[in-house]
Amino acid sequence: MVKFGTQEWAELVIEAINSNKAYAKAADWWEGDFIFQIDPFGGLDHQIRVWVGLYHGKCTGAQVLKEDEEYRLLEKGEKASGQPFEAEFVYSARIDVWEKILRKELDPIRALLSGQSKIQGDMPKILRATEAAKELVASAATIETEFYD
Amino acid sequence: MDDTQRETLFLTIKAVIDGIIADKRENPKNTKRLNSFEGRINIGLHVEEDEIMWINLIAKDGEYTVGKDALEERDLELIADPEDLMFFCNGQFSVMHMMMKRNRFGERKLRFKGRAYGKLLALPKILVLDKK
């Protein structure tokens, strides 16, 4: 078991995504990195942000941001400069919502459309990639994860 | 659903509709239709078995505005589960699918009231993303 939102967990996310053939197929056209933001609640007393690089069905890296590290949300159509940490999308939810998503008790799209999670970024692009989004989360759900009780 | 979740959902749906209109404006073939469509539409988001959250869409003079609550005077009233509405907007669910299939509450995925059938039939051209 690895603790959710740690660098060790992030490394396993890379492996999980890159071994998910359904994700590779659904996201073969996708270019756009994510910040996954985990907001404190219950046993978690601080915010966690994880940068995840995604390019044509593969995960190019995953990094937990330090408390003093900032990220930049790219404008629609803006290309990444290669500097850390830039992302096209930010998907955020409270830790208890993330836990339900990763335990497959809540679909990430339903979380979004029930007001339990938020997304920032180019909405039409994400609307065209709902299957890829589900597979992305399904990849992370394969990791045996310990949460913050 | 609490007030924070309602506000978050409103902002998400507003971002979806605003994003689709902006995306369609990038294709000059859509300009005439987007500029000529006018309507006052109440959209009921069926969020829980016994809860419908109302928002509205006003299209006038080529401008599209998404607001909270239902309008008193409207041309059309639609009710759908927000997830089904999103799959309609991204082209995954057709109008026929939305009219014929049942949602998770056992209701038709898209219910409507109003006699503005022309506006109803035009909606897919306004609210459904173009394929790329």
Itemize the secondary structure elements and their pairings.
The complex is a heterodimer of chains A (149) and B (132).
Chain A (H helix, E strand, L loop, with lengths): L1 E2 L3 H12 L2 H6 L7 E6 L8 E8 L2 E7 L7 E2 L12 E2 L1 E6 H8 L5 H5 L4 E4 L2 H5 L2 H12 L3 E2 L3
Parallel strand pairs in A: 1-9, 2-7, 5-6
Antiparallel strand pairs in A: 2-3, 3-4, 7-8
Chain B lengths: L2 H23 L5 H6 L2 E10 L2 E10 L2 E6 L7 E5 L1 H8 L5 H6 L10 E3 L3 H11 L5
Parallel strand pairs in B: 1-4
Antiparallel strand pairs in B: 1-2, 2-3, 4-5
Give the key terms.
heterodimer, A: 149 residues, alpha/beta, Nonspecific Lipid-transfer Protein, Chain A, five-stranded mixed β-sheet, two-stranded parallel sheet, 6 helices, B: 132 residues, alpha+beta, 5 strands, 41% helix
What does this molecule look like?
The complex is a heterodimer of chains A (149) and B (132). Chain A is of the alpha/beta class. Chain A has a single domain (2-146), classed as SCP2 sterol-binding domain (Nonspecific Lipid-transfer Protein, Chain A). Helix content of chain A is 32%, strand content 26%. Chain A has 6 helices and 9 strands, in the order E-H-H-E-E-E-E-E-E-H-H-E-H-H-E. Chain A has a 5-stranded mixed sheet with strand order 4-3-2-7-8. In chain A, a hairpin with a 2-residue loop joins strand 3 and strand 4. The longest helix of chain A has 12 residues, at 7-18. Chain B has 132 residues and is α+β, with helices and mostly antiparallel strands. Chain B has one domain: SCP2 sterol-binding domain (Nonspecific Lipid-transfer Protein, Chain A). Chain B has a 5-stranded mixed sheet with strand order 3-2-1-4-5. In chain B, 41% of the residues lie in helices and 26% in strands. The A-B interface holds A 109-110, 112-119, 122-124, 127-128, 130 and B 1, 4-9, 11-13, 15-16, 18-20, 22-23, 47, 82-83, 86-87, 89-90, 92, 129, 132.
